# Entry
Amino acid sequence: MKKVVLTLLITIGLLVNSCNKSNITLTENGKTNYEIVLKKNASESLYKSSVKLQYYLSKISGAQFPIVDELSLDARKKKIYVGNHKTENLKPQQVIIRTENENLYISGGSDQAVKNGIYEFLEKYLACKWYAPGVEKIPPSRTISVSPIDYDYTPEIHTRTVHSKLFYENHEFADQQKVTYEAFPYYVPTAKVHTFHRFMPEEVFYKDHPEYYALRGEQRLPTQLCLTNDKVLAIVKDSVASFFSKNPEASVISVSQDDNQQYCKCDNCSKVDTSEGSPSGTMIRFVNQVAESFPNKTISTLAYQYTRKAPKTHPATNVLITLCSIECDRSAPISEKCTDFADDLIAWGKLTNNIRIWDYTTQFTNFLSPFPNIYTLQPNIQLFRNNNAKWVFEQHSHNPSELFELRSYITAKLLWNPDLDFDELLTEFTDGYYEQAGPYIKKYVELIHAEIKKDDDFFLFLYGDPSEAFSSYLNPELLKEYSNLFDEAEKAVANKQELLDRVKMARLGVDYAVLEASRKNITKDYSLMVMAKNPKEVINPMVASLLDNFIHTARKNDISLMNEMGFTVNEYASNYMSALKIAQKPNKAKGKNVVALTKPKKYAEENPMVLTDGALGGSSFYANWLGYEGNNMEVVIDLGEPQPISTVSMAFLQVTNHVVFFPSSVTYYGSSDNTDFKPLGTLSNTAPLNKDSKVNDISYFDLSFEQENVRYIKVVAENTKTPYWHHAAGLPSWVFADEIIIN
# Structure
């Protein structure tokens, strides 16, 4: 069979004053007259980069390119020089690719820059693409000819981190996309962020020295440190020295607040913060003193939540400010919907050039939920770049999540060059990774982003839930349209199992949203139960099939977590199947009137009828849960008439890091007149709260008793107080309850 010879004649958009006006031919008919040249004392890193170049040139053309050093040159061969052979004074990040006198130069200001240059040459000029680990498009061409090149690029963001296992576990893919292998390069491994409790554990110091910790009201609590206490400073300095001693290769350590807003308000701390105009005042003064003791190291600290606003004091030159955008609405660019963060970024920029951005790109309470923020990635990265941020950390989910490969790829590309054409980038990935299914997936991405853009009032929260969007970009009509697009995508690649698997992975977000919509019974189609011909209610076959496919796809793609709290796919599946069983139970309380004797707050529109509406709460407190903050839950259900009952059950939610705890006890009462209530039984929490409690869980408080004839059921759920050791010590805790089942 005659092979088609494809000649790569690439038109280069960035050509400027080329040194050589003619094309150079690296290979012809699978042969080459070029050798790859390294300097005599080239590092192992440069040699490995040259091997990669050699490998891909051979994969494209079949030609074999020898690698030689300057002492072993073949005078008959033309050269591909790898490394800074001209000894130009290049910046560490600078990449230069040039053709000159039929030779090719790939230079950089560091070994890493040279490696970046090699992958840039392969991608930009030879059309190689790497979409995910093991998924690459290397166009074959027996003849490789390139137009004159004069490429000189220095990425403005020097340290580019995408928090994705695609890069952390596949270093070659990270190299191909020019991002770091880890979230915290150069850091002490055990002191990366939120470190106060690591330097001064409350188990060691709090009992004997409560004055070391934050004054909240009239009580010292181990939520944060007292940063104006000289002994605290001495202990932290000693701890930092110990950490560096154990990790001599590390150059950065975090000296930063723990993950809560319960900072010290003692007179001394308050006086400093008032004079500085922000609680970051005590933090920067404290960290500067630590940094003074370690002049050859970098002390990283957070500008996060209560410390996000800049103080008046300049951070020391070896202090790295990590500015965090956690509060921002993700439905639009930060510059449009989170202008206070943009103001803080500018203010910090006036105090220091040493800023690291900690940005967020997924929904941490629901990794697999549709999260239409992809179109905000570029303007946000441009905002960081424009304000001199040299280090950007984009916190993704690490583990696979919604549109995981697409997000990882696009984010990495934009960190390297924030000014790429976004639509071309999106098309490049969807067509390249999903092939024939790509246009349908791109249309889905475009559609869901267009829909959220219509809803200017919607706050796309990092800690939200798909249930918030069932009247917006996840309404029933749109869910059907999204599902239809993925059905078409699957048909387009039905005979290509590998591509079909990728499409099924991509549609997990929509499938998850449909499952949650059905749990909430938002329509007849999207419900847990449907009416059979009998007539009798049966499990919705669409839900049963979707749940089975969802679990199978998640497991096949090694997706283990549903959220950052450690709630697993297996637990989600188990809870959902429990919900299906509960939905089938006869329930005399369904649809019956509920009166709240104590006031609920914020969630489920504060409507106690959510307890008998037939919809079942999920793993997030947004999803159909009635919430009580700092008080007990007391409700009365009216069954309409006296009825014999012998079982009562109610579900409760626990999300410990959001101060949502199971009740310490639940007592059920019965009455025939709504005045005199007889105790039916009390259930204590069988897993009392402690530091090892399950972070995210649902528990059913089931009570069986001798049959009673009652009309009214009262439920009293005792609030579990926030313990002193919890990061929210001093704050009220929540009780969240859902469906009551009475039979």
In short: Residues 1-20 have pLDDT under 50 and may be disordered. The first strand starts at residue 7 and ends at 8. Residues 44-61 form the longest helix (18 residues). Residues 207 and 222 are 10 Å apart (CA to CA).
